[in-house]
Task: structure prediction
Amino acid sequence: MTGEETYEVSGIEIKRSIRNIASGGGVYPTEIFIVNQRIHGLPKGVYHYEVIQEKIALVHPMENTDFNQLQYLFMASQHSKSNIDYQGASFFILFTSVLNKHSFKYQDFGILLSLLEVGEFIHSAYLSCSTLDLGGCVFGGILNDEINKFLDLRNPLHYPVVAMAVGNKA
Result:
């Protein structure tokens, strides 16, 4: 949510929240999970962004050993040729999409709309990183089925699309 819109209908003032990300048909299938690894003042763990309440909710706390599992889920072994500093990242953003939310209305085209929406979120995240002078890197090398279990996503069409490592610039 990025603001509030006020308008008048038949003499009655109506307020509604507005979002800065467009979604085909106003369906909003994208969901955001944050994995805190080094944000001071916030317990380590997996959080779900609750859009309407504009807050994050703890999905499950994490111990240091859980981060070994996280590196496995991100395919970030010590033998990885990636330049991403998985261990040094402050947090990770997992962009997920409930793929059938658009499809019920737009059939197969709905999947494309869902993925375009994830792209809008990624763009917004990069802009936020730039504004806050943080480094960010999106990566798609994730083990989707295992991340589904890790996040306790029960809908088989709720799909982890990509992840983003965020932290101080090297």
